[in-house]
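Rather than argue in generalities, we reproduce a single protein record, letters for residues, whole numbers for local backbone shapes, just as it appears below:
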Amino acid sequence: MLEAEQAKKVVVHIGEDQRYRGKAAFTAILEYLGHKRILAANITRGIAGFGADHRMHTINIERLTEDLPIQIEFVASMSKVDEVMPELYEMAGTGLIEVQDTFLPVAQNFRSEHQPVSRRKEGRAQLLRVCLGENDKCDGKPLFQAVIESMHANDIAGVTVYRGVSGYGEAAGIEEESLPLTESGRPVTVTAIDEEQKIRAFLPYLELIIDQGLVVLSDVETVRYTHDFRSTDRRSRTR
């Protein structure tokens, strides 16, 4: 059975180039929230926006004048939000802080008698890296997107895409965010980790998609942290 615990959702809106005591303000805020034991905080980077100066910032402007909007979001108890807010206002400077009432669903009588216990699981897996160009295509769509969709269809456990800010390949010169792009664009790496058998079984599908690119396979050791609960697990209770 769930009960609702009152909480606050806080969203901090600042500029990417905003500084606080010698470092990026969004980094300083994230470190501060971690120090104050806020359980989780998310940072998102916008592609366009304007701030108190009403000057438009977009991703198409040169990097030195980009200053895109940054949004830092977290949810915490009302008392915890009251604790961090004075320092947060100072760190946000000319930015905007938005506070909303919300609630956290908590299992009744579940807090004290069912404390989470960390469990560490180790194993072996295979790491797959697919190195592509940002502008590479497959059937009219970005090649990296086609690779992700194929991995999803083949039940690969998890995939992450990294977009490089600088690099070069065998068919092009050095690519940087501040330089004009050539046909291949900036480097993009699609990374997946799963059991070796599943990764190997996926490779023939990958060959159907990629005409040119680099595929790297590495044996890795994995350490996975999960949580179990002491006493009777709520999932095993009689309903």
